[in-house]
Design a protein that fits this description.
The complex is a heterodimer of chains A (about 90) and B (about 200). Chain A is an all-alpha fold and about 90 residues long. Chain A has 3 helices and no strands. Chain B is mainly alpha-helical and about 200 residues long. Classes of the chains: A mainly alpha (about 90), B mainly alpha (about 200).
């Protein structure tokens, strides 16, 4: 019985393969359809690419802001020390 | 199918919109016949071209979201997109749709296949007979066999569409094939006559 099942399955597979082959012959894309697909794919690529650029730019801006904040934070104690009046500085010694 | 995977990889790495468009076009040319086969079996004739076009464009637009690496994964993926488009159009599950009689069309495709790969007349006659028997098994059987063998859906995908268990679908397909086998044997005996 399993042999018979395999045999009929193989025959149906062969039939399906032939039909698919026939579909390749009978239903190729027309030049107009092909152009529509290319156009849609180009648009999609630009859309996705624009998103990536936007995200990179946003990330870049965020990183730059963070860096600026870090620098500012590092500078602050230094600045404060330098900005103290000389007497205070002397008293500290 | 290997060159199809190669094209998908190239599409992922496309550096310009034109390049992406060209590659998507080449992919579309390869998958169009399967999508046409899927749509034609389920769609009123006057809608076939539009639905096919929509489905192919939908696949081309989603190419960057395909994450698989094998040909069968890609086939399942694009057939699922095409099925969704089709279902959106017709608002019914695939297997519960009134289908146009497609015997004539399928016989034409069988004939057309010989342009790519020659076949002996007796081989073609056997396949035509098998097709007739499968279609005459009834709508449900034919739909399952069509989805499984012609369109390349997995049992789990047919089950999803039907809201059933994949094993139930597999058993149903096996039963249908068994019935077809019995009919073919009976026909052969009839043609061979009682002396056989």
């Amino acid at each position: 019985m399993p042999d018979q099942d395999a045999e009929i399955s193989a025959r149906v597979e062969k039939l399906a393969e032939r039909i698919r082959l026939g579909a390749e012959v009978e239903h190729p894309l027309t030049p107009k359809q092909l152009e529509a697909v290319r156009h849609a794919a180009r648009q999609q690529w630009m859309l996705e690419h624009a998103k990536v650029v936007e995200r990179d730019q946003a990330q870049g801006t965020q990183q730059a802001q963070q860096k600026a904040q870090d620098l500012q934070a590092e500078k602050k104690p230094e600045q404060q020390r330098q900005e103290r009046p000389p007497q205070e500085r002397d008293r500290g010694r | 199918m290997d060159d199809l995977l190669q094209l998908i990889r190239m599409h992922r790495q496309a550096r310009t919109a034109d390049e992406a468009g060209e590659i998507a076009g080449a992919i579309a040319e390869r998958i169009a016949p399967s999508i046409h086969l899927l749509v034609k079996g389920r769609c009123p004739r006057h809608l076939v071209e539009d639905v096919c076009q929509e489905a192919i464009v939908a696949v081309a637009k989603s190419l960057s979201s395909f994450e698989g690496e094998s040909a069968s994964q890609f086939r399942s993926w694009y057939l699922r997109i095409a099925s969704r488009r089709l279902a959106d159009q017709l608002r019914k599950p695939l297997t519960q749709r009134e289908t146009p009689s497609d015997m004539e069309e399928l016989n034409r495709l069988l004939e057309a296949s010989t342009q790519r790969q020659p076949a002996r007349p007796d081989e073609l006659a056997q396949l035509t007979e098998l097709l007739r028997v499968l279609v005459e098994l009834g709508d449900r059987c034919w739909q399952y066999i069509r989805m499984r063998f012609l369109e390349g859906f997995k049992y789990s995908e047919i089950a999803e569409d039907e809201g059933l268990n994949p094993d139930a679908i597999r058993m149903q397909v096996e039963r249908c094939l068994d019935r077809a086998r019995c009919i073919l044997i009976a026909d052969e005996r009839t043609y061979a006559g009682p002396g056989r």
